[in-house]
Amino acid sequence: MKKESTSAKAPADKQTKDESKKDRKPLRQKGGMYFHCGAIIGRKNVFVTDQYIDLLVNAFKATELKKDVKNLAFVVMPNYFYWIFRLSENKDNPVEIYGELKGDVAKAILETLQEESKGEAHQLADLFKDNERVGRTTAERLIWTFEEYGKQFETSKRYKVWTPKTEIRLIDTDEILQQKLTVIKKAPTLERWQMAKKSEDYPYLYIADELQEIDTNKLKIADFLPIINIESSQVTA
């Protein structure tokens, strides 16, 4: 009688996932394009007044100048953001880019909350005033909340503003580029928020001109990556 093999075979779906991981490129790629999601810890609505929205939008602009990255798309929602950016040809570390941005924004948020707690409360942005889905906690309560979350992380500073370990994804296929851009465009129109009927009517959504000029379903990653990255993809294909 033929003995059964003692080595267990992985389920087909697990094998597929494992193979997919093997095929995936390392995260760090010179001139790489990335999608990142940043979320306020505890899902607190911070980006609902002009002051706090401007903090984040200005940080995107400053990062583009200071770090020589290209902002391809971003959307600012009440308690999170989505961002697609491309590194310069001599940079390969996306974590450094979004890590510094979020660190600067967290510091600015806390400073602004402290100032607000000593004066008049900031008013909701006009877009959100009549939206029942968008509420806002007081500055004092937000400061307390961030301090309480800070106690849960040994390596954290006194306050914790951002949810740790949110998505960072190398965009290395046409499909991922199309999918992530669609996610950004749809965010303001979702049933959860109902910020706008059409994404283009949402004022806190930015899409670079070169991405707007082409239908999302026809976008090709090669059109937005530097030559060094395209050549690398051709070699490993």
What can you see in these coordinates?
- With 237 residues, the protein is an alpha+beta fold.
- The chain has a single domain, classed as Alpha-Beta Plaits.
- 39% of the residues lie in helices and 12% in strands.
- It has seven helices and five strands, in the order αβαββααβαβαα.
- It has helices spanning 12-23, 50-66, 94-117, 139-150, 174-186, 209-212, 227-236, and strands spanning 33-39, 70-77, 80-86, 168-170, 205-207.
- A hairpin with a 2-residue loop joins strand 2 (70-77) and strand 3.
- Helix 2 (50-66) runs antiparallel to helix 3 (94-117) and helix 3 (94-117) packs across helix 4.
- The radius of gyration is 21 Å and the shape is globular.
- The N and C termini lie far apart (45 Å).
Q: What CATH architecture would you give?
A: 2-Layer Sandwich
Mean pLDDT: 86
CATH class: Alpha Beta
Name the poorly predicted regions.
1-20, 227-237
Assembly state here?
single chain
N- to C-terminal distance: 45 Å
CATH superfamily annotation: Transposase IS200-like
**What's the total count of β strands?**
5
Rg, Cα atoms, Å: 21 Å
Strand order of the largest sheet: 4-1-3-2-5
Structural class, from secondary structure content?
alpha+beta
Approximately how much beta-strand content do the residues carry?
A: 5-15%
CATH topology: Alpha-Beta Plaits
Number of domains: 1
Helix content: 25-40%
In brief:
This protein is an alpha+beta fold and 237 residues long.
Features:
globular, Alpha-Beta Plaits, 5-stranded antiparallel sheet, alpha+beta, single chain, 237 residues, 7 helices
Q: How does the SSE layout of this entry go?
A:
Blueprint: H1 12-23, E1 33-39, H2 50-66, E2 70-77, E3 80-86, H3 94-117, H4 139-150, E4 168-170, H5 174-186, E5 205-207, H6 209-212, H7 227-236
Antiparallel strand pairs: 1-3, 1-4, 2-3, 2-5
Helix pairs in contact: 2-3, 3-4
